[in-house]
Protein backbone atom coordinates (compact mmCIF):
# COMPACT_ATOMS: atom_id res chain seq x y z
CA UNK A 1 0.00 0.00 0.00
CA UNK A 2 1.75 3.12 -1.20
CA UNK A 3 1.84 6.34 0.76
CA UNK A 4 -0.97 8.74 -0.04
CA UNK A 5 0.22 12.17 -1.16
CA UNK A 6 -1.54 15.46 -1.84
CA UNK A 7 -1.35 14.96 -5.66
CA UNK A 8 -2.73 11.42 -5.26
CA UNK A 9 -5.69 12.70 -3.23
CA UNK A 10 -6.25 15.39 -5.83
CA UNK A 11 -6.14 12.83 -8.64
CA UNK A 12 -8.99 10.87 -7.04
CA UNK A 13 -11.49 13.53 -8.21
CA UNK A 14 -14.50 11.77 -9.70
CA UNK A 15 -12.87 8.35 -9.29
CA UNK A 16 -12.70 5.98 -6.37
CA UNK A 17 -14.35 7.48 -3.28
CA UNK A 18 -11.92 9.01 -0.80
CA UNK A 19 -12.12 7.62 2.74
CA UNK A 20 -11.24 10.16 5.39
CA UNK A 21 -11.22 9.93 9.19
CA UNK A 22 -10.05 12.11 12.05
CA UNK A 23 -7.40 11.28 14.64
CA UNK A 24 -5.85 13.11 17.56
CA UNK A 25 -3.50 10.47 18.96
CA UNK A 26 -0.83 8.12 17.63
CA UNK A 27 -2.82 5.00 18.43
CA UNK A 28 -6.02 6.21 16.74
CA UNK A 29 -3.95 7.26 13.73
CA UNK A 30 -2.51 3.71 13.58
CA UNK A 31 -5.94 2.15 13.95
CA UNK A 32 -7.44 4.10 11.04
CA UNK A 33 -4.34 4.03 8.80
CA UNK A 34 -5.30 0.93 6.75
CA UNK A 35 -8.62 2.49 5.68
CA UNK A 36 -8.03 6.22 5.80
CA UNK A 37 -6.73 7.87 2.63
CA UNK A 38 -6.79 11.27 4.28
CA UNK A 39 -6.38 11.54 8.03
CA UNK A 40 -7.50 14.88 9.40
CA UNK A 41 -6.29 16.18 12.75
CA UNK A 42 -9.47 18.15 13.35
CA UNK A 43 -9.82 20.90 15.90
CA UNK A 44 -12.95 19.01 17.01
CA UNK A 45 -10.39 17.37 19.33
CA UNK A 46 -11.00 20.39 21.57
CA UNK A 47 -14.56 19.23 22.15
CA UNK A 48 -13.99 15.47 21.95
CA UNK A 49 -10.75 15.15 23.96
CA UNK A 50 -10.59 18.33 26.02
CA UNK A 51 -14.29 18.87 26.81
CA UNK A 52 -14.31 22.42 25.44
CA UNK A 53 -17.66 23.90 24.42
CA UNK A 54 -16.58 24.79 20.93
CA UNK A 55 -13.45 24.68 18.81
CA UNK A 56 -12.75 28.37 19.46
CA UNK A 57 -10.46 27.76 22.45
CA UNK A 58 -8.20 25.29 20.64
CA UNK A 59 -4.62 26.59 20.38
CA UNK A 60 -1.83 26.23 17.82
CA UNK A 61 0.25 24.37 20.40
CA UNK A 62 -2.52 21.79 20.90
CA UNK A 63 -2.80 21.23 17.15
CA UNK A 64 0.98 20.87 16.76
CA UNK A 65 1.34 18.33 19.57
CA UNK A 66 -1.63 16.25 18.37
CA UNK A 67 -0.57 16.65 14.73
CA UNK A 68 2.91 15.28 15.47
CA UNK A 69 1.41 12.31 17.36
CA UNK A 70 -0.94 11.50 14.45
CA UNK A 71 1.89 11.73 11.89
CA UNK A 72 3.88 9.22 13.99
CA UNK A 73 0.99 6.76 13.69
CA UNK A 74 0.37 7.17 9.94
CA UNK A 75 2.28 4.99 7.49
CA UNK A 76 -0.04 5.21 4.51
CA UNK A 77 -2.57 8.00 5.07
CA UNK A 78 -1.98 11.57 3.99
CA UNK A 79 -2.19 13.72 7.15
CA UNK A 80 -3.69 17.22 7.19
CA UNK A 81 -3.92 19.39 10.31
CA UNK A 82 -6.66 21.95 11.12
CA UNK A 83 -5.43 25.49 11.71
CA UNK A 84 -7.11 26.66 14.93
CA UNK A 85 -9.29 29.75 15.28
CA UNK A 86 -7.28 32.97 15.32
CA UNK A 87 -4.15 31.46 13.77
CA UNK A 88 -4.85 32.32 10.11
CA UNK A 89 -7.77 34.76 9.63
CA UNK A 90 -5.83 37.99 10.16
CA UNK A 91 -3.64 37.94 7.06
CA UNK A 92 -1.88 35.64 4.59
CA UNK A 93 1.41 36.35 6.41
CA UNK A 94 -0.01 35.34 9.77
CA UNK A 95 -1.41 32.19 8.17
CA UNK A 96 1.94 31.35 6.58
CA UNK A 97 3.83 31.83 9.84
CA UNK A 98 1.53 29.44 11.67
CA UNK A 99 0.99 26.96 8.83
CA UNK A 100 4.75 26.67 8.35
CA UNK A 101 5.12 25.84 12.04
CA UNK A 102 2.44 23.16 11.68
CA UNK A 103 4.05 21.44 8.68
CA UNK A 104 7.58 21.80 10.09
CA UNK A 105 6.83 20.67 13.63
CA UNK A 106 4.35 17.88 12.83
CA UNK A 107 5.48 16.45 9.48
CA UNK A 108 1.92 16.76 8.13
CA UNK A 109 1.47 17.23 4.37
CA UNK A 110 -1.00 20.10 4.53
CA UNK A 111 -3.38 22.26 6.53
CA UNK A 112 -7.14 22.81 6.58
CA UNK A 113 -8.72 26.23 7.10
CA UNK A 114 -12.34 27.31 7.44
CA UNK A 115 -13.79 30.06 5.29
CA UNK A 116 -15.26 31.03 1.94
CA UNK A 117 -13.88 33.32 -0.74
CA UNK A 118 -12.64 35.80 1.87
CA UNK A 119 -9.90 33.21 2.53
CA UNK A 120 -8.97 32.74 -1.16
CA UNK A 121 -6.00 35.11 -1.01
CA UNK A 122 -4.64 33.23 2.00
CA UNK A 123 -5.13 29.86 0.29
CA UNK A 124 -3.16 31.12 -2.74
CA UNK A 125 -0.44 32.63 -0.53
CA UNK A 126 0.17 29.33 1.27
CA UNK A 127 -0.12 27.14 -1.82
CA UNK A 128 2.35 29.33 -3.77
CA UNK A 129 4.82 28.89 -0.92
CA UNK A 130 4.57 25.10 -0.80
CA UNK A 131 1.89 24.45 1.79
CA UNK A 132 -1.08 22.46 0.45
CA UNK A 133 -4.42 23.76 1.74
CA UNK A 134 -7.82 22.14 2.14
CA UNK A 135 -10.50 24.82 2.49
CA UNK A 136 -13.51 23.93 4.69
CA UNK A 137 -16.87 25.49 3.72
CA UNK A 138 -20.54 25.16 4.66
CA UNK A 139 -21.04 24.49 8.36
CA UNK A 140 -17.87 25.99 9.83
CA UNK A 141 -17.65 25.17 13.56
CA UNK A 142 -15.29 28.12 14.17
CA UNK A 143 -18.23 30.35 13.12
CA UNK A 144 -20.51 28.88 15.79
CA UNK A 145 -21.45 32.26 17.26
CA UNK A 146 -22.14 33.82 13.87
CA UNK A 147 -24.34 30.82 12.92
CA UNK A 148 -26.11 30.81 16.31
CA UNK A 149 -25.24 27.13 16.85
CA UNK A 150 -24.29 24.16 14.70
CA UNK A 151 -26.76 24.37 11.82
CA UNK A 152 -26.84 23.16 8.23
CA UNK A 153 -25.80 25.89 5.78
CA UNK A 154 -26.64 26.97 2.24
CA UNK A 155 -30.27 25.89 2.45
CA UNK A 156 -31.84 29.00 0.91
CA UNK A 157 -31.30 29.65 -2.78
CA UNK A 158 -29.05 32.65 -2.18
CA UNK A 159 -26.98 30.96 0.52
CA UNK A 160 -26.60 27.91 -1.71
CA UNK A 161 -25.37 30.07 -4.60
CA UNK A 162 -22.86 31.77 -2.32
CA UNK A 163 -21.49 28.39 -1.21
CA UNK A 164 -21.06 27.22 -4.79
CA UNK A 165 -19.31 30.51 -5.63
CA UNK A 166 -17.02 30.11 -2.58
CA UNK A 167 -16.13 26.60 -3.70
CA UNK A 168 -15.15 27.75 -7.20
CA UNK A 169 -13.03 30.64 -5.95
CA UNK A 170 -11.23 28.46 -3.37
CA UNK A 171 -10.53 25.84 -6.03
CA UNK A 172 -9.14 28.54 -8.37
CA UNK A 173 -6.99 29.80 -5.49
CA UNK A 174 -5.27 26.41 -5.39
CA UNK A 175 -6.97 24.29 -2.71
CA UNK A 176 -6.13 20.59 -3.28
CA UNK A 177 -9.45 19.29 -1.95
CA UNK A 178 -12.53 20.89 -0.44
CA UNK A 179 -14.19 19.91 2.82
CA UNK A 180 -17.94 20.48 2.61
CA UNK A 181 -19.83 20.26 5.91
CA UNK A 182 -23.54 20.34 6.70
CA UNK A 183 -25.34 21.27 3.52
CA UNK A 184 -28.05 19.91 1.22
CA UNK A 185 -27.55 17.24 -1.43
CA UNK A 186 -28.43 19.77 -4.14
CA UNK A 187 -25.73 22.21 -3.07
CA UNK A 188 -23.16 19.46 -2.43
CA UNK A 189 -23.78 18.06 -5.92
CA UNK A 190 -23.47 21.44 -7.59
CA UNK A 191 -20.25 22.17 -5.69
CA UNK A 192 -18.81 18.77 -6.58
CA UNK A 193 -19.71 19.25 -10.25
CA UNK A 194 -18.28 22.76 -10.42
CA UNK A 195 -14.79 22.18 -9.00
CA UNK A 196 -11.85 20.18 -10.40
CA UNK A 197 -10.72 19.06 -6.94
CA UNK A 198 -12.25 16.33 -4.79
CA UNK A 199 -14.93 17.30 -2.30
CA UNK A 200 -14.93 15.49 1.04
CA UNK A 201 -18.34 15.62 2.68
CA UNK A 202 -19.51 15.46 6.27
CA UNK A 203 -23.26 15.81 6.52
CA UNK A 204 -23.14 16.77 2.85
CA UNK A 205 -24.80 13.80 1.08
CA UNK A 206 -23.23 10.97 -0.95
CA UNK A 207 -22.61 13.32 -3.91
CA UNK A 208 -19.17 14.26 -2.64
CA UNK A 209 -15.97 12.62 -3.93
CA UNK A 210 -15.24 11.33 -0.43
CA UNK A 211 -16.63 11.15 3.09
CA UNK A 212 -15.24 11.96 6.51
CA UNK A 213 -16.55 11.36 10.03
CA UNK A 214 -15.07 12.17 13.42
CA UNK A 215 -13.69 8.75 14.40
CA UNK A 216 -14.89 8.93 18.02
CA UNK A 217 -18.44 9.59 16.74
CA UNK A 218 -18.56 6.55 14.48
CA UNK A 219 -17.02 4.29 17.13
CA UNK A 220 -19.45 5.37 19.87
CA UNK A 221 -16.65 6.90 21.94
CA UNK A 222 -18.16 10.38 22.17
CA UNK A 223 -21.79 10.94 23.06
CA UNK A 224 -21.93 14.49 24.49
CA UNK A 225 -23.39 15.65 21.21
CA UNK A 226 -24.27 13.58 18.14
CA UNK A 227 -25.14 15.40 14.92
CA UNK A 228 -27.83 13.98 12.61
CA UNK A 229 -25.24 13.03 9.97
CA UNK A 230 -23.28 10.66 12.22
CA UNK A 231 -23.66 6.93 11.71
CA UNK A 232 -22.45 4.92 14.69
CA UNK A 233 -20.67 1.79 13.45
CA UNK A 234 -19.76 0.49 16.91
CA UNK A 235 -20.63 1.15 20.52
CA UNK A 236 -17.17 0.96 22.03
CA UNK A 237 -18.09 3.31 24.88
CA UNK A 238 -20.40 0.64 26.34
CA UNK A 239 -17.69 -2.04 26.01
CA UNK A 240 -15.15 0.20 27.72
CA UNK A 241 -17.55 0.91 30.60
CA UNK A 242 -18.24 -2.76 31.21
CA UNK A 243 -14.54 -3.72 31.11
CA UNK A 244 -13.76 -0.97 33.63
CA UNK A 245 -16.64 -2.03 35.90
CA UNK A 246 -15.26 -5.59 35.95
CA UNK A 247 -11.79 -4.28 36.85
CA UNK A 248 -13.25 -2.15 39.67
CA UNK A 249 -15.25 -5.05 41.03
CA UNK A 250 -12.31 -7.49 40.91
CA UNK A 251 -10.07 -5.03 42.73
CA UNK A 252 -12.69 -4.51 45.44
CA UNK A 253 -13.24 -8.24 45.83
CA UNK A 254 -9.50 -9.03 45.89
CA UNK A 255 -9.77 -11.12 42.73
CA UNK A 256 -7.31 -8.99 40.83
CA UNK A 257 -4.40 -9.53 40.64
CA UNK A 258 -4.32 -13.31 40.92
CA UNK A 259 -1.09 -15.15 41.70
CA UNK A 260 -0.17 -15.59 38.03
CA UNK A 261 0.32 -11.84 37.84
CA UNK A 262 2.45 -11.47 40.98
CA UNK A 263 6.24 -11.43 41.24
CA UNK A 264 8.12 -13.69 43.67
CA UNK A 265 5.37 -16.23 44.05
CA UNK A 266 6.21 -19.83 43.23
CA UNK A 267 4.10 -20.82 40.29
CA UNK A 268 4.93 -22.33 36.91
CA UNK A 269 3.64 -19.28 35.18
CA UNK A 270 6.15 -16.87 36.75
O1 LIG B 1 -12.46 19.25 13.32
C1 LIG B 1 -12.86 18.27 12.63
O2 LIG B 1 -12.94 17.12 13.08
C2 LIG B 1 -13.22 18.53 11.24
C3 LIG B 1 -13.82 17.40 10.48
C4 LIG B 1 -14.99 17.88 9.70
C5 LIG B 1 -12.81 16.77 9.61
O3 LIG B 1 -13.02 19.62 10.77
NA1 LIG C 1 -12.36 21.25 12.26
From TrEMBL:
Free-text remark on how the cofactor is bound: Binds 1 Mg(2+) ion per subunit.
Subcellular localization: Cytoplasm
Pathway stated in the Swiss-Prot or TrEMBL entry: Cofactor biosynthesis; (R)-pantothenate biosynthesis; (R)-pantoate from 3-methyl-2-oxobutanoate: step 1/2
Cofactor section: Mg(2+)
Keyword Transport applies: no
Protein name per the record: 3-methyl-2-oxobutanoate hydroxymethyltransferase
Chief place where the protein resides: cytoplasm
Entry's EC annotation: 2.1.2.11
GO molecular function list: 3-methyl-2-oxobutanoate hydroxymethyltransferase activity
UniProt keywords, alphabetically: Cytoplasm, Magnesium, Metal-binding, Pantothenate biosynthesis, Transferase
Gene3D superfamilies: Phosphoenolpyruvate-binding domains
Residues reported to bind Mg(2+): 43, 82, 114
Description of how the protein assembles with itself and partners: Homodecamer; pentamer of dimers.
Reactions catalysed, as given in the entry: (6R)-5,10-methylene-5,6,7,8-tetrahydrofolate + 3-methyl-2-oxobutanoate + H2O = 2-dehydropantoate + (6S)-5,6,7,8-tetrahydrofolate
Keyword Metal-binding: yes
Organism superkingdom: Bacteria
